[in-house]
Amino acid sequence: MLPSLAGGGAERAAVQILNALDDAAWERSMYLFRHEGPFLSDVSPAVRLHAGTADSRIGLWHALRRFVRETHPDVVVSFLSYFTVLTAVKAAASGARVVFNQQTPMSAFLTDGDYPWRRHWHRHAFAMVTRAGCAAADLIVTTSQGVADDLVAVFGVARARVRVVHNPVDLDAVAVAAQAPIDAVHAAAWQRPVIVAAGRLAEAKNYPLLIEALALLRPRVPARLFILGQGDEDRAIRALVAAHGLDEAVVLGGFQKNPWKYIARADVFALTSHYEGFGNVLVEAMACGVPVVATRSPGTSEIVRDGVDGLLIDRHEPAAVAAALERVLGDEPFRRRLAGQARVGAGRFALPVIARQYESMLRELAA
Q1: Domain 9-168+351-366, CATH
Q2: pLDDT tens for each residue of 321-351
Q3: What are the C-alpha distances in Å from 348 to residues 23, 103, 281, 344?
Q4: In the chain, where does the domain assigned CATH 3.40.50.2000 lie?
Q5: DSSP character string of 274-327
Q6: pTM for the full model?
Q7: Is the bond leading into 193 cis (omega within 30 degrees of zero)?
C-alpha cells in the first residue's frame, strides 16, 4: 500500500519487490490512494492494481478499510502513510499482519525542511504517533541498520521487531537502460569531465552543497554537473547556480524515467544529501560502473565501501566535497579501480537477493 507511484525510491522499491515475488506462492495486490505516478507502467500484469477514488482523507481511509475487508490479505506492507494504513487494516478486523517499510531515519525526517514542521508540537505529535504505530505494527522493515538503530534508540521500538532488508536494484534492467542514448540537447552540452547527480530537488538532498563544491572545483578541474530530478527547490537551485556564475557548467535535466543512460556516461556520481535511509541511486550508479562520492549518513555508509568502490565525506562542507571530487576526477587509475569495484559491490543489492529475503520474511508472517 502506497499513496501513489510518484517518482521516489520507496515507490520504485515497492514495485520491484512486489513484481519479484514468486507467482506460484503469492497472490499480489498493490493498493494506491491515487492512481498516478511514473512507475505505474512498471507494475507487473500479474499484480492486481487497485486505487482509491475518494477526495478526502476520511474517504480514502474508508475505501482502504473496505478493500481490506473484501480481499482478506494475509500480510499488508505499508510504504509511507503508515498510520493511515495501520488503523484502516486494524479497523477492517481481517487478521492481516501489518508491516511498515521504513525508508528513512525518522529523527532526520522530523527535522527535514521539506515538511511542514512549523510548530514544535507538530513534530512532537508526529513522534508520538510514530511510537504508537510502531508498537502496533507486526514488524518494521528498515532499509539500513542506521534506520533501525534510530527507531530503537529514539522511538523505543523493540529491536526484535525490526528487520533490516535493503532496497533492491534490478541490475539487468539498469544495464539495458544504460545503453540508451542521452537526449540530443544534453549530448551537445556533455563535455568531460562530467559529474551526475540524481534525485528530487528537495531540501534533504542538499544540492546547494554540491553546487558550492563545484564552484570551488571549477578553477582546478573544468567539470560539468548534470542534475536529474524535479521538485520544489528548482527555482532556488537555479538562482544559486546563477549566483556562482555556473550557468554554463550546470545542466538541470528534470525528471528522467531512465537516469541510468546519463549516470553510466558520467566520470563520477555525486550524492550530497543531509541524510539517506538507504540511497538506491548510489547502488544504481555503482551498477553502471561509475565511482560514487557521497556524504556519510546511515544509508550511504552501508552501500559505499570508502576508498574501495567510492568515497564517503564525513564533513558536509563544500571544500570536503570538492576535494573528494577532485581526487576521483584527477586520478584516472584510482577512478578505474573504484569503478571496477563498484560493479562488484552493487551485486550485494541485486533484486533476486533482496527478493529472497522478502520471501522469507513474508512467509514467517503469513505462517
Answers
A1: 3.40.50.2000
A2: 999 999 999 999 999 999 999 999 999 999 9
A3: 24, 18, 14, 8
A4: 9-168+351-366, 171-349
A5: S--SS-HHHHHHHHTT--EEEE--TTHHHH--BTTTEEEESS-SHHHHHHHHHH
A6: 0.86
A7: yes
